[in-house]
């Protein structure tokens, strides 16, 4: 399966800095790399339009993701951005359920499920993040917790609505800490999730990508990305540095 590498810029960079980083990444990549790997950048909402304009003007193959989407379609919801508005900007993907949103903005599995539905209605590919805390891992309850996150997040999803779905295993204890999950941890969880979704109607190897995120860097990316069950990576900190991000992309064996 074609691997996917997603850069989550979080609350960093204005739109001019974003354009610079996009151009630097693009310049450092081989011309045909995007035919072999899906490359996705996820900037703040304020940069979506500028980056998308550069991509269409220069005919780049890099795709853009938003970092979130509203549960609402329209109306009196000040500050929200809807899936339909993102679609009008030709945004391909949207991250939902990132642990930082669950933690700091009280996002629930039900919110994640509504967001997923809004994205699918608008033909935007969801990148659904899930993963356990350190406490859940040490208690041994992490697989049960993940099962619940996945089942609740994907409730009601229909095969005819799903073109592509990315499920990103992001253990909370590995995000931004420099502590990367072991290959055994990653394989155990992705195998578990693959089994969990494989009897659901929307699942096929073509439509669902299983990826890992949490302190991915050029030092560990080759081992992670060249493990067969791992379809890609969600990269936070290292995606803000063009050289590191490109090194991560280049560590995929083609
Ligand atoms: C993330 O925020 O999705 C992430 C994986 O961050 P980092 O790579 O910095 O751990």
Walkthrough of the structure:
The protein is an alpha/beta fold. It has one domain (3-250): TIM Barrel. It contains 11 helices and 8 strands. It has helices at residues 15-28, 33-36, 45-57, 83-88, 99-104, 109-121, 134-139, 142-153, 183-198, 221-225, 242-250; strands spanning 3-8, 37-42, 63-66, 93-96, 125-130, 165-169, 208-213, 232-235. Strands 1-2-3-4-5-6-7-8 form an 8-stranded parallel beta barrel, surrounded by 5 helices. The chain is globular. The N and C termini lie close together (11 Å). The structure holds phosphoenolpyruvate. Phosphoenolpyruvate binds at residues 8, 170, 175-176, 213-216, 234-238.
| Ions and ligands | phosphoenolpyruvate
End-to-end Cα distance, whole Å, is 11 Å
Identify the CATH architecture: Alpha-Beta Barrel
Share in β-strands:
15-25%
Helix content: 40-55%
Uncertain residue segments: none
SSE run: EHHEHEHEHHEHHEHEHEH
Order of neighbouring strands in the sheet with most strands: 1-2-3-4-5-6-7-8
Number of separate structural domains:
1
By helix and strand content, what is the structural category?
A: alpha/beta
Tell me the name of the CATH homologous superfamily.
Aldolase class I
How many strand elements?
8
Please, what is the average pLDDT?
Answer: 96
- Number of H/I helices: 11
